[in-house]
């Protein structure tokens, strides 16, 4: 119930924060840092399966362990964060959005059983209908997210040489 309440209240909080002076920039940073953190954890877990495993650093008695996946995941996630800050072109936004979507699926997928997922999706479907067709606040939220150039929506260019910045 708490998760559903947070999901329903979060878009309203985003709209309120976006209306304040400097709120859009602060909100953008907060969302990008959240996406970067989720990318880091899921990339680390994924890369740990592919790259060489942790190995002990001499002296072994000290208990120090090195893991190749740890810094690699950090470099990739921070690099994508910086790319979104410096040059948020459509292909960077789409790439990070695709990876962040996979990260969110991985995090939520191991957190819920089948029945809570069905309940959550049913409640979200009703909420989406109300938010889009009745109160229309989801449309305003989508406009704010598009202006902020966040990797939440997929951007499809309509012509060659499309510039999203």
From TrEMBL:
Q: Signal peptide location in the record?
A: none
**Cross-referenced Pfam families:** SPP
Membrane spanning stretches:
30-51, 63-84, 104-130
Q: Does the keyword Transmembrane helix apply?
A: yes
Does the record's keyword annotation contain RNA-binding? no
Keywords assigned = Membrane, Transmembrane, Transmembrane helix
The identity of this protein, by name, is Membrane protein containing DUF1119, archaea
């Amino acid at each position: 119930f708490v998760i559903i309440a947070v999901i329903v209240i979060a878009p309203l909080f985003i709209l309120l924060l976006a209306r304040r002076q400097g709120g859009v920039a602060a909100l953008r940073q907060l969302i990008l840092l959240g996406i970067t953190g989720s990318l880091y954890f899921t990339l680390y877990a994924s890369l740990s399966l592919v790259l060489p495993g942790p190995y002990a650093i001499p002296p072994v008695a000290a208990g120090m362990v090195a893991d190749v996946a740890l810094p690699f995941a950090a470099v990739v996630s921070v690099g994508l964060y910086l790319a979104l800050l410096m040059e948020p072109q459509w292909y960077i936004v789409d790439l990070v959005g695709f990876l962040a979507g996979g990260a969110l699926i991985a995090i939520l997928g191991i957190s819920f059983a089948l029945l809570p997922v069905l309940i959550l999706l049913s409640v979200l479907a009703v909420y989406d209908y109300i938010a889009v067709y009745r109160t229309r606040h989801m449309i305003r939220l989508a406009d704010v997210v598009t202006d902020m150039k966040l990797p939440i929506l997929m951007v499809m260019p309509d012509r060659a040489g499309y510039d999203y910045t």
